[in-house]
Amino acid sequence: MSPQDMTMMREKLEQQTGFRWLDVDDVAGVKGVLQTRGWIGGMAEIADVSYAGEGNMNLVMRVIVNEGRGERRLIMKQGRPWVEKYPEIAAPWDRVEREWHIYRKIRIFDGIGESMPGLVGFDPDMRLLVLEDLGEGCDLKSFYDGRVLNGEEIDWLSEFLKRVHGVMIYKEDRADFSNESMRLLNHEYMFMQPLDKQRVVDERLDDLENDLVDTINDLKRDEPLREAVGELGEIYLSDECRAGDVLLHGDFYPGSWHWPIKRGKGRRGILDWEFSFVGNRGFDVGVYIAHMAMSNHKIDAVEQFLDGYGWDGNSVMSSFAGNEVIRRIAGVAQLPIEKTNEWRSELLKLGRDAVVHGDWRILWG
Which are the contacts of 299, defined by CB distance < 8 A and separation ≥ 6? Predict the structure, then answer.
């Protein structure tokens, strides 16, 4: 979406009754929105408004409210008709409403609701979701700078994902969890764009690692890889009811895991459900595996996770893992990883082999 289109969209929406673009600098506007919808009291004061986390898809703000009887912390999440971090990319505008729908549907299940933020409110006209704040969390970059999950944390993640995948979705309800528009967006940047022969690879990737662009261009000419990734994309997009399909989180990587910075300050949780849909369990598990490889965890972190989850995996899961490595290194959605010397290129080649041969262990060489 061009800057001109964004400006026109803003001006058009600002004329609508009840709509307001939110911004961290507009404290009065934030207060007004919360009070007029009854989400905070009339005598409440806003102590602070700041950005909360990376906010790749949406504007995400942390709001600290003083209501006389103590401090209250909220998360305000507003979707725009574009990706917040990459405004040139148009995005489905109903994604926050889809996330609200998922929260309402699955938080009732044992072992799931207590690991999700509490719901405060939703305004469909403003595409605004307000949630309980789980507290200050570990910075995403720390996972790729050496923070290692301990055994208890790995068990917690595997148990949580197992519970989500165990939610019963009846055939007649599957359409409610299709989330087709977000899957189409994700499909483009996960399975199409990274290996598109017509795409000119951003030369700035060579700033992250010498000759990385050459390695990516080699992958774009790799027909067995392109064919395998194309088949994975078809599995990802398929609405065909298949035995074994489950409710997926859809973006199960460290950016969606909330770990409190200090013990006793906040609680754990799984965030950002806007990509959730019903599909192949290997997608969620494969994404976890890929990020263990990219954050330099030992292979034990995967073996323990699979053991806790109760599944050995399969070739589709392994291929999803390899593709997640490729798209994160070669595509738009870059991770906060420092400049490297051959590491990215080597991992791309391992990712390629994991996709083609259907074996996630290849990612560890």
Answer: 361, 364
203 DSSP assignment = G
- What are the tokens at 297? 């965890």
* Residues 260, 136 contacting (CB under 8 angstroms): yes
Q: Are 129 and 282 in contact (CB under 8 A)?
A: no
Q: For residue 117, give the amino acid letter.
A: P
- Structural domains in the chain? 3-132 (3.30.200.20), 140-364 (3.90.1200.10)
Alpha-carbon span 355 to 320, nearest angstrom: 7
How far apart are alpha carbons 206 and 231 in whole angstroms?
Answer: 29
Report the Cα–Cα distance between both ends of the chain, in Å, rounded. 40
Q: Which two tokens stand for residue 137?
A: 């969390």
Per-residue pLDDT tens digits for 309-352: 999 999 999 999 999 999 999 999 999 999 999 999 999 999 99
Instruction: Return the amino acid letter for 31.
Output: K
pLDDT at 17 over 60: no
Q: Are 285 and 322 in contact (CB under 8 A)?
A: no
